[in-house]
Amino acid sequence: MKIAILPGDGIGTEIIAQAERVLGALDLRIESERALVGGAAYEAHGHPLPEATLALAKEADAVLFGAVGDWKYDTLARPLRPEQAILGLRKALGLFANFRPAICYPELTAASSLKPELVAGLDILIIRELTGDIYFGQPRGRRAAPDGAFAGAEEAFDTMRYTRPEIERIAHVAFRAARQRSKRLTSVDKANVLETFQFWKDVVSEVHSEYPDVALDHMYVDNAAMQLVRAPKKFDVVVTGNMFGDILSDEAAMLTGSIGMLPSASLDANGKGLYEPSHGSAPDIAGKDVANPLATILSVAMMLRFSLNQAEAAARIEQAVRAVLAAGLRTADIWAEGTKKVGTRAMGDAVVAALAGKPAITTKH
Ligand code: NAD
After folding, report:
1. Which residues contact 117 (CB under 8 A, 6 or more apart)?
2. Cβ(39) to ligand 1 under 6 A?
3. How far is the CA of 245 from the centre of ligand 1 (A)?
4. Which one of 3.40.718.10, 2.40.50.840, 3.90.1010.10, 3.65.10.10 gives the CATH number of domain 1-96+268-365?
5. Ligand 1 mean position to 97 CA, how many Å?
6. Which of 99, 115, 212, 311 has its CA 20 to 30 A from that of 39?
7. pTM for the complete prediction?
8. pLDDT digit string (tens) for 197-224?
């Protein structure tokens, strides 16, 4: 098994360093190779996704990704900006299914912006289609002003579009995921207004006939946004399109307390995937040893489970993270009165210690 490790920019390098230590502590036979991506790759090679990085990602069984981006690149032409690297990887690797679990650990209930009773025990999975919808549909652009001036355009437009195979494949992924959990799936659409999402609803219902053991319900996206903050625990697995999924998964993220806790997986048709924390490169806290590495460490667990067939090792990591939280250790983003504030590296130490069955004590660095 070989994984490509792409730390990227900002806190990306700090959190990936801790994830690598956790992976190393598992004693698995996994080969890994690092490559530059994002702003770091632009600085070294003039492109955020160099050929060599893409080749490594294609050749590997899985990709572990940190985060990319920095405000200093905002003036670059769009194709050279760090964020293009992640879009390029998704496209080149055919990563159409984005898994975003939102779990509220009992110890972090107070960190949520919702009342504790609404989020205690929350464990939902949002599955977002990642390569279609209005983000990729053609045509898109601006219609020039009557005199042909682009800057003075009168109109801009994007195209919302889904093909049957695109909906079928994400529906199959979602039904299979629901089967492994509570056998309930909610498909989120806007079928009352949009033809694309009436089609989405129809195709998801057709695919449902192959999964009679899974209960399917449909919900409009505006209602889903409301229900997610009204009664989030009513959901189990949610499947939706690219744009609705983008928005709802961030909403769900905040239910759990901190974006620093949330892993994600983006999978292709064969289970190969790219694993990354749900957050970005956080330039405001980069280099200060304060970033929460747990989202990245939990992304390693997802990688082991989904792409490397190591479910037991994945469960060990998840258990170690729970133990560390139960021991009261917190990075700044999840810190609360009565808990012990630790830095990025010390949190990594604690997870490694918990994996070895040692109490989650921390050492000074
Ligand atoms: P961000 O997720 O980087 O940060 C948002 C806020 O959350 C910041 O206050 C940050 O300090 C905090 N935060 C994020 N991760 C944290 C962690 N692990 N521990 C503690 N606090 C954490 O989003 P942003 O500030 O909007 O964007 C910063 C850069 O990241 C931009 O260049 C953006 O384009 C990029 N970005 C990249 C990705 C990616 O690599 N997949 C995703 C989102 C944003």
Report:
1. none
2. no
3. 18
4. 3.40.718.10
5. 22
6. 99
7. 0.89
8. 999 999 999 999 999 999 999 999 999 9
